[in-house]
Design a protein that fits this description.
Blueprint lengths: L6 H8 L13 H19 L3 H20 L16 H12 L1 H4 L13 E9 L3 H9 L11 E6 L4 E7 L6 E12 L3 E6 L7 E9 L5 E9 L8 H7 L3 H17 L16
Antiparallel strand pairs: 1-7, 2-3, 3-4, 4-5, 5-6, 6-7
């Protein structure tokens, strides 16, 4: 029966004892190399810079090794093992976790430190999973977001929003994209380039200490300018923070008392 070499036997064969039997001390060429190698090591010990020390020392050691043994110094081989270090694994998880964030459209939303930020929270007496699903279905949002006239969902990440001013005198619109989505935990979004009112935001869901779900909404928007038009400024009104508070209050009613849905039905377009 044929015998196959074991890993240990192969390692032993690869690391055979050093053989100095062929070393000829009468060879002036080899003696010169030995002297040069020793000199490089001495220079390395005298150097001030750690990089210089390392370079001279390694160079001298390599020269001594090749002269004494007749072997060449083998460069380090890159490991082909599929296993990854814990740090690389952690980085991989982070990259996978941020896939949607890296797919976001450049130039969308609100740049850091450039927008107005609003944060409001409310507790809803419903399980976190239910509240997340409610927000995930974009057709629910116009029922409690007072100024949102309609939302047309294009795909899993993109949608088209039409928002009206109080009284319906004018409208503004933009395309929105979801940039992060963690089921039952968080949804984040931003407007795409060309929006009448550049904005971004997120909603987070956490279990309340006494039951129910804490809903925390963060909104950011650019302060409207004349270039954005009158509609963009009118949509926010005089108290956008109060508007957000009232929107969340309507959301709470809808989730806790679904029969109230018709009470907050979106405004119908009477021109149709």
């Amino acid at each position: 029966m044929a015998e196959y070499p074991t890993p240990a036997s192969r390692l032993s064969a690869e690391r055979s004892p050093l053989d100095f039997s062929n070393l000829d001390l009468q060879d002036s060429n080899k003696l010169g190399k030995l002297a040069a190698g020793a000199g490089l090591i001495l220079l390395g010990g005298m150097g001030r810079s750690s990089i210089v020390k390392l370079g001279f020392t390694l160079g001298g050691a390599a020269l001594l090794f090749t002269t004494l043994t007749g072997r060449k110094v083998q460069p380090l081989k890159k490991s082909t093992s599929p296993s990854r270090s814990p740090v690389r694994k952690a980085r991989g998880v982070m990259r996978e976790d941020q896939t949607l964030a890296h797919q976001r459209t450049r130039g969308g939303g609100v740049a850091d430190q450039e927008g107005v930020k609003l944060v409001r929270s409310i507790t809803v007496d419903r399980p976190r999973e239910d509240v997340y699903r409610f927000w995930k279905d974009l057709q629910n949002l116009p029922h409690f977001m007072d100024h949102v006239e309609s939302i047309h969902q294009i795909d899993d990440r993109h949608s088209h929003w039409i928002v009206r001013t109080p009284g319906g005198a004018a409208t503004a619109e933009w395309y929105m994209e979801i940039i992060n989505d963690h089921p039952d935990e968080m949804i984040a979004w931003q407007s795409m380039p060309g929006a009448d009112l550049p904005n971004a935001g997120s909603v987070r869901f956490a279990s309340g200490p006494e039951g129910g779900t804490i809903v925390r909404v963060t909104l950011e928007y650019l302060q409207p300018t004349m270039a954005m038009g009158v509609a963009a400024a009118a949509i926010l009104g005089d108290q956008p923070d109060q508007q957000l508070t009232e929107d969340l209050g309507r959301m709470k009613v809808l989730l806790e008392a679904p029969e109230e849905r018709n009470r907050f039905a979106p405004m119908e377009d009477e021109s149709l």
